[in-house]
Design brief:
This protein is α/β, with parallel strands linked by helices. 55% of the residues lie in helices and 12% in strands. It has one domain (2-232). It is globular. The chain starts with a strand and ends with a strand.
Length: 233
């Protein structure tokens, strides 16, 4: 049996590189400074409990699969190091796992990741409202197809590289569908409920309308991970 620990993640500003400032600006504009700050605290708390959990587990021999990771070897390690130094809690955790004996696996196809990044960058760099709208429409039209292609590639990589008896950890955006594309021979354990992580993100723009549910989900994200409460597939 192959075991995969599945971590549905929420990206922080440090994960977004050159797009971070624009995302923050739009977040404040749409939500207001108070809610945006509250959201950022929730995401920070989410990564704190994820980090606490994995910092107390055995990492030796574990294979690491990472959202957006287009290389392994020296190039992959350099990506991890530079993104960790930029302040990414995700990559800081990956760096610690690697130091404790885990190994990094190329997870994604460079062309697919670059295509999605370029489309998102076109939105943030558009110098007029019309161009921004056009770029946004183009991205939305291609988004589902790109995500499906990426998820298919990621699932194939896991199937090809995770050997019988081995354990892996995947850090992947909550809106990805990798889990459903993996073979039955891979036993999956979620450390956080993917559906709840997705629901929190989907309710963020409507926090006032669904305040009670939004706050409950926020509390769930920052709650300590209970090993007995993990979901297995």
């Amino acid at each position: 049996m192959r075991t995969l620990i599945y971590v549905p993640i929420i990206h922080t500003g440090a994960d977004l590189g050159s797009m971070a400032k624009d995302v923050t600006k739009r977040g404040i504009a749409h939500l207001g400074e108070e809610i945006w700050a509250k959201h950022r605290r929730t995401v920070e708390g989410f990564w704190d409990v994820i980090s606490d959990y994995f910092d107390s587990t055995d990492a030796k021999g574990v294979k690491i699969y990472q959202d957006g990771m287009i290389a392994d070897g020296e190039v992959g390690l350099r990506i991890v190091e530079e993104t960790a130094k930029a302040g990414s809690k995700n990559y800081q955790l990956v760096s610690r796992l690697l130091e404790r004996g885990a190994s990094l696996v190329k997870t994604e196809d460079f062309k697919l990741v670059k295509e999605e990044y370029d489309r998102l960058l076109a939105i943030t760099q558009a110098n007029s409202k019309i161009r921004k709208i056009v770029a946004l429409i183009k991205y939305r039209l291609a988004k589902t197809t790109l995500l499906n292609k990426r998820d298919t590639f990621i699932a194939k990589r896991i199937d090809q590289t995770l050997e019988p008896g081995e354990k892996g950890i995947i850090f992947i955006g909550a809106y990805h569908g990798v889990k459903n594309r993996l073979p039955k021979s891979v036993q999956i354990t979620e450390v956080k409920d993917t559906q709840k992580v997705r629901r929190y993100q989907s309710l963020l723009p409507y926090h006032n309308k669904y305040r009670e549910q939004f706050d409950e989900l926020g509390a769930y994200l920052v709650s300590e991970i209970d090993c007995d409460g993990q979901r297995r597939f």
